[in-house]
Write a structure and sequence with these properties.
The protein is mainly α. It has nine helices and no strands. The longest helix is centred in the C-terminal third of the chain and has 44 residues.
């Protein structure tokens, strides 16, 4: 466990955490308009580093549970911060939705031999498998993840250009649809697991 704490991918994760702390500090303490760009810049840097830690984890085979949970938590916190900053009327609903999927993903990662992304890459509906294909390194996943950040960021900056919203709303819909499907698949698997356990218990009593 001690060795896992200093894996290169996890060191990058600590850097992401520092950027998030700086972003929140700037958001809370500064009313300077320029600080808004510093705030978003820190969050963008955090998300870009997410690509780096994933590459390092795969490159060196450092895919332990701690790293998976750290990465998941940092993603959720980053998304939550930008949604709160957007002050969108539906932000709280999406935050709750994403945290529900995140907590269920964390539980799966702890209890299973595979990560939650690998789980969706090998089972479920074809569109979901495609979304998680190649560790989400595909056009659909890239577009929806970028749109998922740009939409609340544009609201935060009070951008009036409608094109940014026209371009990002479809990706946001894809992202949140995948989130809902993930939750439904987790619930379905849980129900099947309970039913299977009850059946085994009944057969054992016969």
């Amino acid at each position: 466990m001690k060795a896992e704490l200093i894996y290169p991918c996890n060191l990058v994760g600590y850097g992401r955490l520092l950027l998030i702390v700086v972003a929140v500090s700037v958001y809370i303490s500064s009313g300077d308009p320029a600080a808004r760009w510093v705030f978003l810049g820190c969050l963008v840097a955090s998300l870009l580093l997410d690509l780096t830690d994933g590459f390092l984890a795969r490159r060196y085979g450092h895919t332990g549970t701690f790293g998976v949970l750290l990465d998941l938590a940092l993603d959720l916190v980053t998304h939550t911060i930008v949604w709160i900053a957007s002050e969108w009327r539906f932000a709280v609903l999406l935050i709750l939705l994403e945290w529900t999927a995140g907590v269920l993903s964390a539980v799966i990662s702890v209890r299973s031999d595979t990560t939650w992304k690998q789980r969706f890459n090998t089972r479920g509906w074809a569109p979901i498998r495609y979304y998680f294909r190649r560790h989400q390194r595909n056009l659909l996943s890239a577009y929806s993840n970028i749109a998922h950040f740009l939409f609340p960021a544009a609201l935060f900056l009070s951008l009036s250009n409608t094109w940014i919203y026209i371009l990002t709303v479809p990706g946001l819909i894809v992202y949140e649809t995948v989130t809902v499907v993930m939750i439904l698949m987790y619930i379905s698997e849980r129900k099947r697991g309970i039913a299977s356990s009850e059946l085994e218990s009944e057969l054992g009593d016969m």
